[in-house]
Design brief:
Structural class: mainly alpha
Strand order of the largest sheet: 1-3-2
Number of domains: 1
Largest sheet: 3 strands, antiparallel
Order of helices and strands: HHHEHHEEH
Strand content: 5-15%
Distance between the termini: 29 Å
Helix content: 55-70%
């Protein structure tokens, strides 16, 4: 069996830097904000949702278009969009019988592009 060796980076002696701890505590996120961020990242842990967001980062699309792009049924895509809408990552507008989806704001596109840049940088 192949074992992986992991180096553990820990302090060799127990020490605390009070000033740094106080600064970090003062800057810490509140629990509610941390929870909302964690939930957002959980949504991004699904490849289908990432692909949907990526497609929408380039243009507005209807459910039929998104389903064709990600090669899934419309009901499955609709379910994913409902989750993304609930997290305010996407928004929609109705135009007659059509429902058009887009990213909720430019920050979602920025988050996605930063993630892509990070992954590409780590692949080098």
């Amino acid at each position: 069996m192949n074992q992986l060796n992991f180096e553990i980076d820990i302090c060799e002696e127990l020490c605390e830097h009070s000033r740094l701890i106080d600064l970090a505590k003062a800057e810490m996120l509140d629990d509610d904000t941390a929870q909302l961020i964690a939930e957002s990242f959980k949504l991004l842990a699904d490849t289908t949702r990432v692909k949907i967001l990526y497609a929408l980062s380039h243009r507005e699309l209807c459910v039929c278009d998104i389903a064709a792009v990600v090669a899934m049924g419309q009901s499955a895509v609709s379910h994913q969009l409902r989750l993304l809408r609930g997290a305010r990552m996407v928004k929609y507008r109705k135009e007659g019988t059509m429902v058009w989806y887009s990213l909720d704001d430019d920050l979602i596109s920025l988050l996605l592009s930063q993630g892509i840049e990070h992954v590409k940088h780590k692949q080098k």
